[in-house]
Amino acid sequence: MGHINVLAVFDNEEVGSGSKQGADSTFLTDVLTRVGAALGAADGEIRAAIAASFMASADNAHAVHPNHPEKYDAQNRTLMNGGVVIKHNANQKYTTDAVSCAVFCSLCAMAGVPVQHFANRSDMPGGSTLGNIANKHASMNTVDIGLAQLAMHSSYETAGCADVDYMVRALASLYSRNIVMHADGALTIE
Prior knowledge:
By secondary structure, this protein is of the alpha/beta class. It has helices spanning about 25-40, 45-50, 100-110, 130-135, 160-175, and strands spanning about 55-60, 85-90, 115-120, 140-150, 160, 180, 185-190. The chain has one domain: Aminopeptidase (3-Layer(aba) Sandwich). Strands 1, 2, 3, 4 and 5 form a 5-stranded mixed β-sheet that branches. Helix 1 packs across helix 2 and helix 3 (about 100-110) crosses helix 5.
């Protein structure tokens, strides 16, 4: 079976994603399974295809707020107009791992897009994203990405104009290539 690009947009994030159309439902897996079956793939082939897939969970990221720089880790500060943010969390609140980070960094390099890395301060808990929620139902390599912004979840969120172009170019790079997982677990980008 070849590759198919999919865009999944989930509802009900702000109330926990537990609805029938939220990230914490079987919706994504159900759709991918039905698509595979419609293409004539057997159950084992569909499961293997999902496991060999790559997902970019795109949300936003916290930029260093000039009024509260003490709230941010000194080594993991992201700035507006500094490029797409790759989000990391040792407790897997963000799904990025070494493999997905390397793949996404390579895709961005191919597109000439700068990347930044974000991790919460270890003494301050942060939120999570739909990536780790959706991965409970459809396990695949996933990177959590976003655009650096101020005042997330407020009525006046602020982001950088250059970052929008960076994100478009990064996602175009993702959607225009085939990421192949080989039998030995190695990933290549075609």
